[in-house]
Amino acid sequence: MTRELWKGNEALAEAAIRAGVDAFFGYPITPQTELLEYMARRMPELGRTFLQAESEIAAINMVYGAACTGVRAMTSSSSPGISLMQEGFSYIAGSEAPCVVVDIMRGGPGLGNIQPGQADYFQITRSAGHGDFHPLVLAPATVQEAVDLAYISFDLAFRYRTLVLLAGDGALGQMMEPVEMPPMRTPDATQPDWALTGAKGRPPRTITSLYLDADELASVNARLQEKLKTIAAAEQRWECFMTDDADLLVVAFGTVARIAKSAVRAARAAGVRAGLFRPISLWPYPAPVLDGLVDQVQGVLVAEMNAGQMLEDVRAIVRGRTPIRFLGRTGGVIPMPDEITNELTHMTRVNHRTNGAGMKRDVE
Amino acid sequence: METSIIISGFGGQGALFAGQLLAYAAMESGKEVTWIPSYGPEMRGGTAHCTVVIGDEPVGSPLVRNPDCVVAMNLPSVDKYEPLLKTQGRLIYDSTLVRRSLRRTDIAGVAIPAHDIATRCGSQRLVNVAMLGALLTLCPLVDLAAVEQALHTHLPARHAALLRPNIVALHAGAAYVKALAETQITARG
Q1: How high is the pLDDT of residue B43?
Q2: Residue A99: helix, strand or coil by DSSP?
Q3: Quick one: which of A238, A324, A337, B175 could link to A262 by a disulfide (CB 3.0–4.6 Å)?
Q4: What does the pLDDT look like over B111-125, one tens digit per residue?
Q5: What's the pLDDT tens digit per position in B13-59?
Q6: What domains are there in chain B, each with its CATH number?
């Protein structure tokens, strides 16, 4: 297969096209806009639907409506736009409408800025809207991985009738890297047995998230929770990098994880046996694998472009068995490899817990 | 083995495109590569820069604090990156626009009259490619032929008339550095 240089945002769009996306609805926002622009050009060429909505709220509701008819529907945005879509996410979860959403995260809160961020972690992994649910959240670290995950995202969405959220950041969206694109798939023509396709010749179907009877809604929730358990068991994804003999473990996702890879290599060159645990699925979190690594290491360093969000998941898994140190960058500032290496070196020097200042701190 | 290059200039000088050409050429030469731009408000006329990392293994961090090579197309770029270069790093700058001498003595600085070279090749807009030619002569990361191929493939159709001048400028930048190196060898000998 040939390697081509692709920009993250455009690669995500092309991968979704090759995966058979039927309809894209979106509203522009930096640093994600190239994805929408690419769709605007390519989808009509292929006779598929592209529509620029009047807002993110409209876009996600168009996705909701299209998904209810059984087509592969998708949108993409960046943090402030994702906040606007949350009501739609919740309705989609309650209705079990399969769809794919891309979040190219930027600095927040509020309008924040257009630089890379990872501070949507709580928002997208915990529920992404009101009510009890989790989207299936996948966080690629390279452009190739973004392509590979986008390519399977509709399969996952339809298998579980769930919202699949691809979580990248401004760096992933804007950077270029060699990619091997997967082949164009012929979309499956068979319609799901729940899709609203006009009731001609069959009894009508209903897709709703409204259940006025408490017992009925409770049983719907019980079914949703069972489904989440199935997803949690089957869809954990992760990468272990140089963890076999590691004394210190970096835990990071997305862009920070690939920066941490450089830091781990540099630390190794300096005689520090470091390794990296990289969750690829942020929900479900690959907790058992991390749990297994904790007993072998003398410390864990959590690095994120936020003030300590995934940190809470890691703390719940580590349960005080080993010291945790945290390196956070906010506001769109990207940590450099040497900052992570320095933290690792620091951890080899201190065997007692200190109170670090600001975003660098020993957690427990 | 990884080599990091930052190309920096005013918005519109083509720093980002020069970096893309380098990235395409590296990929076509079988290397691993990342290209990442500054994409903030700089794009609207301030300074713009991109970081290219070329290696034999898949690239970890696409960003570096201390680059191996810097191509500085204006004074603010020299001011910003001269202090950040690695020891023994290489700084190529446009001596037409940058009138001050370098402060560090532990780096290899090469002054290129890139504006003059570009103008001779037909257009001031060729500064970026002339400096890329110079960089690749100083640090042979990829063959100039691979950059030529990248120009053929990726120069936007609306600039088709600039294809030949771009190739000429690429080689003119390279030739300037070669001549400079030969002069120094002669001077030393």
Answers
A1: 55
A2: strand
A3: A337
A4: 999 999 999 999 999
A5: 999 999 999 999 999 999 999 999 987 665 555 689 999 999 999 99
A6: 2-188 (3.40.920.10)
Q: What is the pLDDT of residue B186?
A: 67
Question: A234, A260, A290: which is the final residue of a domain?
Answer: A234
Domain count, chain A: 2
Mutate to test the interface with B, among A104, A261, A262, A329 (most CBs of B within 10 A): A262
ipTM higher than threshold 0.90: yes
| Mean pLDDT split into 10-residue runs, chain A, 364 residues | 93 98 97 98 97 98 98 98 98 98 97 96 94 97 98 98 98 98 87 94 96 98 98 98 97 98 97 97 98 96 98 97 96 94 92 47 71
- Candidate from B36, B60, B64 with C-beta closest to A174: B36
Are A194 and A248 within one domain? no
- Residue A219, min C-alpha distance to chain B (Å): 47
* Residue A115 contacts B, CB cutoff 8 Å: yes
Question: A171 vs B36: CB contact, 8 Å cut-off?
Answer: yes
Say if residue A303 is in the same domain as residue A187.
no
Q: Collapse the DSSP code of B5 into the 3-class scheme (helix H, G, I; strand E, B; otherwise coil) and give the result.
A: strand
Residues of chain A with Cβ-Cβ distance to B63 below 8 Å are 171, 259, 334, 336
Q: What is the pLDDT of residue A351?
A: 55
B24/chain A closest Cα distance in angstroms: 7
Q: Would you call B60 and A170 a contact, using CB atoms and an 8 Å cutoff?
A: no
Residue A69 shares a structural domain with residue A217: yes
The predicted-structure confidence for B78-105, as pLDDT tens digits, reads as follows 999 999 999 999 999 999 999 999 999 9
| pLDDT at site A357 | 39
Range of the domain at A313: 239-362
pLDDT on residue A190? 81
CB atoms under 10 Å from CB of A201, counted, come to 5
Q: What does the H/E/C string look like for A184-232?
A: CCCCCCCCCCCCCCCCCCCCCCCCCCCCCCHHHHHHHHHHHHHHHHHHH
| Gap between the Cα atoms of A185 and A19, Å rounded | 6
- The CB density around residue B180, as the number of other CB atoms within 10 Å, is 16
Of B35, B39, B65, Cβ closest to residue A31: B39
Q: Do A262 and A203 sit in the same domain of this protein?
A: no
Residue A205 near residue A196, CB atoms below 8 Å: yes
A260 Cβ contact list (under 8 Å, min separation 6): A250, A252, A276, A278, A303, A337, A340, B60
Calculate how close chain A gets to B152, using CA atoms only, in Å: 15
Whether the CB of B64 is below 8 Å from some CB of chain A: the reply is yes
